[in-house]
Design brief:
Number of strands: 18
Helix content: 25-40%
Shape: globular
Largest sheet: 6 strands, mixed
Distance between the termini: 26 Å
Strand content: 15-25%
Number of helices: 13
């Protein structure tokens, strides 16, 4: 498969700046300290002049299993090669591995995962904390000659081969995006300009863009004393976020399909003050009202406590023209201390999921990948708005092959609005004030997403 590197343009208008009114100055979430330990955390959410709601009585406690530690991968082999400039090399089909192909109906799970659902294991496997990193894939990347043939003229990209995969040097990124500075100190990597800071760590998949956390498909690597980033992360994440106006898969929309996760006999995650299915449905109704106020048409996959199959939810989105898809969920962890907000976009083809139970390596998956850049843009809009406004623990914008995303042919995301297994967070989730505030923020984010990508949407008509 081929990932076309960005062509040069004169200006950069980062998505982070375009998508939230708080921008760089307000995006200062402290990811190291749990939000419930910060002074005024509860007050910030409930200080809207309304009376605090009493939470519902808690259900019976749940016993959950502890996650197993991840096994570190082998040390990568590095080969530096200069790219060719010839554009005559024909495209080649990528090598694929049938053993690593994820199922289309359910995310691939490790063998040690229990088959019996516990505390909301059901639809999305929420019974375990998801800090376990994905396994390193061994599927070969496109050949260097193929990659070089797709480099735009005068772009200045330098490719480094690591374990058969293409990586782009930090220096060439610095020059292409015209950052004012690029620095590597030990394992820490910084790119800086007036209103934009990118921070990465060699050996880590975490990338902070204006202090909003993104989880890369592959860790940042070191080569020749500098940092290198995987080509797929540059093409499918970094460039769409830095230059949203050049997204090629954005389509105009006037409708939002809201999917309240779980329902009926599938209760989802079991929390301190209630069940995921009930919180998701209540939030979906509030979000519908907020989006309607902003001029959008809204369709809900369910309006009552009923069970809708995963394929049925996807079919509703796929049969709705001119729409985007928002699937609403709440998390659970193996520890009551787990907390925070995370947002998922579909794993691009040839990439790696952010967590092992999220489908692993996606070597041959094609369905739903036609909106890779729009997916990450929508995830960025929603996640950055919520994190910037409420200062929740930022668990990151991640990738996974959840069933409701894999088959969806519309731009879509899955939003996890907090942990029902965390006492303080579940008390918020169970309150009308929290759901109203977050729904309003997400509705604003949808407006900002459409505004930021308006130029790109016009070109795709």
């Amino acid at each position: 498969m081929s990932f076309v590197l960005p062509a040069p343009h004169r200006t950069v208008r980062p998505l982070i700046l375009a998508l939230t009114a708080f921008a760089f100055a307000a995006a200062h979430a402290d990811v190291a300290q749990p939000e419930e330990d910060k002074p005024g955390f509860i007050g910030r959410v409930f200080s809207f002049g309304k009376k605090k709601e009493a939470p519902p009585p808690p259900p019976a406690p749940v016993v959950e299993e502890k996650p197993k530690p991840a096994t570190p991968g082998p040390k990568p082999k590095v080969t530096t090669t200069k790219p060719k400039t010839s554009s005559s090399t024909p495209a080649k089909k990528p090598a694929t591995s049938t053993s690593s192909t994820a199922k289309k109906t359910e995310p691939a799970k490790p063998a040690a995962t229990p088959t019996a659902p516990k505390s909301g294991d059901g639809e999305f496997g929420h019974s375990k904390d998801d800090d376990k990193p994905a396994k390193t894939a061994t599927v070969s990347a496109p050949s260097l000659s193929e990659a070089s043939a797709r480099l735009p003229a005068n772009a200045g990209w330098k490719i480094v081969k690591i374990n058969g995969r293409d990586y782009i040097t930090g220096e060439s990124m610095h020059q292409f995006y015209r950052f004012s500075s690029y620095k590597v100190e030990g394992k820490h990597v910084w790119f800086r300009s007036n209103n934009l800071i990118l921070k990465g760590t060699i050996g880590s998949q975490e990338l902070l863009i204006n202090n909003i956390k993104f989880i890369l498909s592959y860790p940042v690597q070191e080569s020749g004393g500098g940092a290198v980033f995987s080509r797929i992360d540059l093409c499918k994440l970094i460039d769409p976020v830095l230059r949203p106006t050049y997204i090629t898969d954005a389509v105009p929309f006037d409708t939002v399909v809201i999917d309240a996760g779980h329902g009926g006999h599938d209760a989802g995650a079991r929390g301190v003050y209630g069940y995921e299915k009930d919180f998701a449905l209540k939030m979906a109704h509030v979000m519908k009202a907020e989006l309607t106020k902003r001029g959008f048409k809204v369709i809900m996959t369910r309006t009552t406590d009923t069970f809708i199959s995963l394929s049925g939810r996807v079919a509703i989105a796929n049969n709705t023209p001119n729409c985007i898809f928002l699937s609403l969920h709440f998390n659970s962890g193996s520890s009551s201390a787990a907390s925070g907000i995370e947002t998922f976009a579909l794993t691009p083809q040839g990439s790696s999921a952010s967590l092992e139970r999220g489908g692993g390596y996606n070597a041959t998956g094609v369905t739903g990948n036609s909106h890779d850049s729009a997916n990450i843009a929508l995830a960025t809009a929603v996640h950055a708005m919520v994190i910037s406004k409420f200062k929740f623990v930022d668990r990151g914008i991640k990738r996974a092959q959840w069933s409701v995303l894999t088959g969806c042919k519309r731009p879509g995301i899955l939003f996890e609005g907090g942990f029902v297994t965390n006492g303080n967070e579940c008390r918020l989730i169970a309150s009308d004030t929290y759901r109203q505030s977050v729904s309003s923020a997400i509705a604003d984010a949808v407006v900002n997403y459409r505004t930021a990508l308006r130029g790109a949407m016009t070109r795709t008509r």
